[in-house]
Amino acid sequence: MQNNSNIPKHIAFIMDGNGRWAKERGMSRTFGHRKGVERVKEIIRGAGSLGIQALTFFAFSTENWSRPKNEVHVLMRYLDSFLSKEIEQMQKNNIRFKVIGRSEPIPKYLLAKIKKTEVQTQLNTGLRVVLALNYGGRQEILDAAKKFAKDALAGNINPESLNEDKFRSYFYDADIPDPDLLIRTSNEMRISNFLLWQLSYSELYFSHKYWPDFGIDELKEAIKEYQKRERRFGGINVN
After folding, report:
1. What DSSP line would sit under 25-40, residue for residue?
2. How high is the pLDDT of residue 239?
3. Cβ 99 vs Cβ 131: under 8 Å
4. CB–CB of 212/185 below 8 Å?
5. What residue segments make up the domains of the chain, in order of their start?
6. Which CATH architecture group holds 10-136+178-228?
7. Which DSSP string corresponds to 166-225?
8. 11-34 as b/e, with b when 16 or more CB fall inside 10 Å?
9. Which pLDDT belongs to residue 231?
10. Most buried of the four, 36, 161, 164, 189, by CB within 10 Å?
11. Quick one: how far is CA 213 from the chain centroid?
């Protein structure tokens, strides 16, 4: 990638197509998820050298619990294994890790592993890696509204003082800037209840490739496309 200017600081990913990728190869859906985890690792390890500061991966939605129980169980185990194997690399590469979403009904063993990883990496100052797990954008807005209402009822904040910035502080990822770029794979062109507030002014990039085929080269192509665009945030270019 020749142009090192205008690199998106925060990229969010909807990792779509693991199951279809596996089915086309006569393999199980869980095999596709395992290959998908490998792509996550590749993207994380290549992001720092590209100048990216934060990555958010949509790992599991609140709606995904309706999938077959065995598939859900395997996905949780894959995440547990990912955290166990990657914590050393995170520490070595100064990566700070965080999970956003509701904790129930995530298995307790996985919640404990998540908390341990977050605590161990909380002082790291490099790349931020965020996993959206048991996450829904509408649910996040509702949870933020409830937190604000509790503060208002307790007299901790004047409701009339509420603005966008203050409300944003009640979100799961309050300490992370909104994504500059959203990438969704497998040529699906929707955002599927993901970061509804945060994506308001993000650039959207839809790849025809399934997630297991989306590696660092494909990420570079997405960034090149991003660099061609003009972000006006609702305004106009007066030049």
Report:
1. TT--HHHHHHHHHHHH
2. 54
3. yes
4. no
5. 10-136+178-228
6. 3-Layer(aba) Sandwich (3.40)
7. HHHTTSTTTTSPPPSEEEE-TT----TTSSTTTTTT-EEEE-SS-GGG--HHHHHHHHHH
8. bbbbbbbbbebbeeeeeebbbbbb
9. 77
10. 36
11. 18
Residue 167 in contact with residue 222, Cβ under 8 Å? no
| Residues designated as active site | 16, 64
Q: What are phi and psi of 236, to 5 degrees?
A: -130, 160
Task: Give me the count of residues in the chain.
Answer: 239
Whether pTM > 0.85 for this model: the answer is yes
Instruction: Name the β-bridge partners of 56.
Output: 12, 130
Structure confidence at residue 230 (pLDDT) = 83
List per-residue pLDDT tens for the chain, 239 residues long. Answer: 556 678 999 999 999 999 999 999 999 999 999 999 999 999 999 998 899 999 999 999 999 999 889 999 989 999 999 999 999 999 999 999 999 999 999 999 999 999 999 999 999 999 999 999 999 999 999 999 999 999 999 999 999 999 999 999 999 999 999 999 999 999 999 999 999 999 999 999 999 999 999 999 999 999 999 999 987 766 656 55
* Tokens coding 184: 């969704």
Q: Name the residue among 1, 51, 6, 38 with its Cα closest to residue 228.
A: 6
Give the full edge-to-edge strand order of the sheet including 54-61. Answer: 96-100, 128-135, 54-61, 10-14, 181-184, 203-206
Question: How many helices, marked H, and strands, marked E, lie in the chain?
Answer: 7, 6
Q: Which two tokens stand for residue 154?
A: 């307790």
Q: What burial letters (b/e) apply to 178-187, b meaning 16+ CB within 10 Å?
A: bbbbbbbbbe
Cα separation values, 78 from 34, 67, 84, 121, Å: 7, 16, 10, 20
